[in-house]
Amino acid sequence: MDQLWSVAFGGAVALAGGAATTALQAWLQRRAAREDYLWNKRAELYLDVLRHGNGQIAHTDDDDVDEQYGWTPETEELRQDLTARVQLFGSPAVEERWRRASEAGRALDFYATENLLVERGQYAQRRSDAGEDPVYVRRSNDAKEARRLLAEQLRLELRTDRHLKRAA
């Protein structure tokens, strides 16, 4: 009779162990799937931030967005969408670097437009003598540096360099 209880107890332990293992595996798979989903959403967002976050598309909290140059209802819709997605899926560091890149891009655009250093047509083109204006050069360098820092933060958070084996 003791042997029967030992076998029954052993079977119950094995069954409980199997059930616990199955539950743990299911939980780990759900967690991995959710992390994969969130990483993909973040990667998609960060690509959009890099594509649009250079001055024309600014954070909705930025009150000094100059609506005189290039503002359209579509731009405003994109701005609200990008801001909401950054607040939901992005990090505070990315949000801050996006703001800085956006501000630097807008400052450059505003200065160039106000000082007639950009010829506007179908596409804005820099005048050949714009590189001689020290304020333009400084703002251009500021915009490039802010964009570089933004891209660096995006790569860091997505671990792009590690996965692609790129030099940092």
Walkthrough of the structure:
With 168 residues, this protein is mainly alpha-helical. The radius of gyration is 26 Å and the shape is rod-shaped. The chain has helices spanning 2-52, 73-89, 92-114, 134-158, 160-164, and strands spanning 118-119, 125-126. It contains five helices and two strands. A two-stranded antiparallel sheet has the order 1-2.
Ends apart, CA distance between termini: 69 Å
What is the ordering of alpha helices and beta strands?
A: HHHEEHH
Q: Give the helix proportion (percent range).
A: over 70%
Shape: rod-shaped
Average pLDDT works out at 80
Proportion in β-strands: under 5%
The radius of gyration computed from the alpha-carbon positions, rounded to a whole number of angstroms, is: 26 Å
Helix-and-strand structural type: mainly alpha
Number of discrete helical segments: 5
Number of strands: 2
Strand order of the largest sheet: 1-2
Largest sheet: 2 strands, antiparallel
List segments where confidence is low: pLDDT < 50 over at least 5 consecutive residues. none
